[in-house]
Amino acid sequence: MRFLRPPVRSTAFVLALALVACGGGGGGGSTTTGTDPQPPPATWQRTALMDVAAGGLTPARVTAAAGGDGRVHVALFEDAAPGPYRITYLAWDPAAAGAPEGETVVELDNAAGLAVAEAAGGRPVVVYQGGAERTCGDERQSDAMVSVRGDGGWAEYTAAIGENPRNPVFFDGVAGAGVAAAASADGAVHVAYQFYYEGCDAMNFAYPDLRYVRFDPDDPSALPEEEVVEGNVYHPDGSGEQNRAGDGVVLTVDADGVPSIFHYAELADGTQGLRVARRLGGQWVSEWIETDCEVGAIAAGPPGGEPGVAYLVTRYLDGRDDRGTLRYARWDGSGWAVETVDDTVRCAGACSLAFGPDAAVAIAYYEDETYAGRELKNLKLARFDGTSWTREVVSSTGDVGRYNGVWPDGAGGFAVLGYSDTDRAIYLFRAE
């Protein structure tokens, strides 16, 4: 299948950087492995941005998105009193002195699903699972929610309830355990999310659907129409196909306002791997990027040209012992070109992706251990200069990088964000 794409324009875009827990993939598409000369280690200056109130019972899920004015928007989960959790937001401005101060977006009873984006006018938008409690006696909040920051502070709205037209009794399902968000130039916020339940059918936890809504911050009270991107198929005679869709979901929007959703999927025919769905002509068109693998964390974005996606491999189905391999795929105009970025160690945690000038690509990621099982726990950065990949360690102390972010620093390089599990703190790294 061709990956259809309108002609590229020079319109600026906002790149959302999702920092979610990672895994892996392997299988289809063209594959290359570079033998890259490694540069001498850079000296990275570390700046503490924020201490995190995390007790260790739930991950902080630090998530970031680069804004159009050079700011970086960061959202994370923290422990809260009296409620279990709160979502904290902070904006790092490289032109401002000192570290930013965090502010509470909302308190909620679960820490599932989290994304951040920048809407028109520089307004930060945070997407998460919250809202109303679902039916069947479970008190967990179950809607995909959007909070928008205005002059009067944060205002919360419902983006999706997980509509279940097949069950007239329990119409409200579970939406938002996995979420992704990105803004387009027309001011809209695009949201992709997993839909786990149909009423009280707990069996559907194993087979989530992937859904999408288009949220208008200028008309936030209007509940968007929920669209099924991919998932289970039901027939009038009661038969159907059980598919799993939306794990590690990442959403990008190109210069023409067309959303693309990258995710890990397992289909009823046994095919599994990294998949992309693109909304063309009002319809979702899906294709495989790489198959015969299991994929965890994913990071994607349009670099102003053809799209690219970074991801980690948790397991190849052919039995190869390449668990934790970092891969990158780019659309070359006729197909997906897939290459290995780092298979020298076992990678885990999160990966994030940014694009710089002159075809430069940067991937921040976390190296967990050697193939012999020795702990590493380092934050790394891989860079592509248009010809080959180079890799370097950004931080090797404090267990930094299981959640991370990367963006152009405005001086031809990249700035890297990392969360320390040891210090319970967020750090910013810039090459000296």
Q: What does this molecule look like?
A:
This protein has 432 residues and is mainly beta. The protein has one domain: 6 Propeller (Neuraminidase). It is built from no helices and 32 strands. The chain has strands at 16-17, 30-33, 44-51, 63-66, 72-79, 85-92, 103-108, 114-118, 124-133, 141-150, 153-160, 175-183, 189-195, 209-215, 227-230, 233-234, 240-241, 244-253, 259-266, 272-280, 283-291, 293-301, 308-316, 326-331, 336-342, 346-355, 361-369, 375-384, 389-395, 400-408, 414-420, 425-431. The strands form eight sheets. The chain has a five-stranded antiparallel beta sheet, with no helix packed on it. The radius of gyration is 20 Å and the shape is globular. The termini are far apart. Residues 1-29 have low confidence and may be disordered.
Quick structural gist:
This protein is mainly β and 432 residues long.
Strand content: over 45%
Number of domain units = 1
The CATH class assignment is: Mainly Beta
Please state how the strands of the largest beta sheet are arranged side by side: 1-4-5-6-7
Distance between the termini: 45 Å
Give the strand tally: 32
- Cα-based radius of gyration, to the nearest Å: 20 Å
Largest sheet: 5 strands, antiparallel
Can you tell me the overall shape? globular
Q: Helicity level, as a percent range? A: under 10%
CATH third-tier fold name = Neuraminidase
Return the average pLDDT rounded to an integer: 86
Based on secondary structure, the structural category is: mainly beta
